[in-house]
Predict the 3D structure of the following.
Amino acid sequence: MARDKLNQILDMQRNYQLRLGHDFEKMTLRRRIAYILEMSYALNDEVHESTKEVGWKSWAKSKHINEEAYRSELIDCFFFLLNLMLAANMTPMDIFRGYKAKLAKNLQRIKDRYDGVSTKCKVCKRDYNDAGVECSPARGHVSSTPRKASRAA
């Protein structure tokens, strides 16, 4: 059931983006990169907007959550996250599998008493166990090489 809903959400978001002129199947690499950057900045901005609906400041007396406004900002975040997933050609199954794999990794980190430092490259600060990281304690830092582009610029 949840996968069906996620399919519907991604389809609706894809159609919405098509109406705005964003066709992910026809986008050039250059346009896709620009789109990803714009959506990333927008997502970041929406996350910051959501924090304005929470009384989080330790020096302020008010401790509150404006539930309706906070939820609305989270939906705004979700829109931009969906756009980023569409730009990455992610399917509901990709999202499900990616989530399950990351959850398993995070649960293992709890067991291993993960410190956030000892398993990371000293140069690029990426975790040795993350997908696409070629660095290792034995090899040291390995510069990232651009992956083959999926679309021409």
